[in-house]
């Protein structure tokens, strides 16, 4: 059995959400979904996806 990476799991979830249609995943308009930027199975080129570490302000010394 092939290893299911996090990106592949996200892609599978999006396909499941769109009733198995890969074309519907591409046409998805649910921009408020946290998986929306990752729905095509790879990270977006413009790096709109941020991690909590990037959002956390640095502690003052």
Proportion of residues in helical segments: 25-40%
Give the structural class: mainly alpha
Number of helices: 3
Unreliable residue stretches: none
Count the beta strands.
Answer: 0
- Major β-sheet annotation: none
Give the overall form: globular
Residue-averaged pLDDT: 82
Note the run of SSEs as H and E.
HHH
- End-to-end Cα distance, whole Å, is 50 Å
Radius of gyration, CA atoms, in whole angstroms: 15 Å
Q: Per DSSP, what share of the residues sits in E-state strands of 2 or more residues?
A: under 5%
Key structural traits:
mainly alpha, 61 residues, 0% strand
Secondary structure topology:
Elements: H1 6-17, H2 22-26, H3 52-55
Give an overview in words.
The chain has 61 residues and is an all-alpha fold. The protein has a domain at 1-35. It has helices at residues 6-17, 22-26, 52-55. The longest helix has 12 residues, at 6-17. The protein is globular. The termini are far apart.
Question: Gist?
Answer:
The chain has helices at residues 6-17, 22-26, 52-55. The protein has 61 residues and is mainly alpha-helical.
